[in-house]
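seq:
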Amino acid sequence: MDSRSGRPGRDPVAFYSGPIRPSAGASIIDAPPDTSPAEPESAAECADGTVTEHDDAGEASRTALSAAARWGYLCGTAALVIVLDQLTKWWARSLDEPIDLIGSLRFNLAFNSGAAFSRFEGWGSIIGVVGIVIVVVLLRSSLHLTNRIGAICMGAVLGGAIGNLIDRAVQPGNGIFGGKVTDFIDLQWWPIFNVADIALTVGGVLLVVVGLTSSAKHGSA
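struct:
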């Protein structure tokens, strides 16, 4: 209270809401303590290494998610090609006569002991071994994929290779992987082929296009 006026006085500390600065002669001990939590300048300043661990875990999680997505696209596409290829071949083996569709296109059952599009007839066993090597190489190459389109194209090629390998392994033929591949898509002006052949060809061409496009972008950067 103000002794001269009889009115309540104002507390100078309560009235002033600005920052309190110590006078030139005041000791640092007189300054009010800073109770706000200090932020470490680096992750190493944390007593238990929590920030460093969280940062590392977050980065590892993002990397693992990216890798999981690539393998998901690749394996998902390969599985889709294999299932579609084997189902259509199973249906085609029940054909008794050709089925005409549009123009020269028809379904016409045939068995191929060679490579895709009826090339290298009679080389079934050798082609089967080469197919296994190709599958292994494709799986190793998949480790370097960096985009979704590349993973899908690689999955199509992988699914096509495995689809025809299944025929060579389980269908009647001579020797190991000497089984004949089921073909049924007949243009009548091109060797008869199947869904696996389509996936192999289209996926391979698109992989080349994606690779050339990626190289061009890196070259212009």
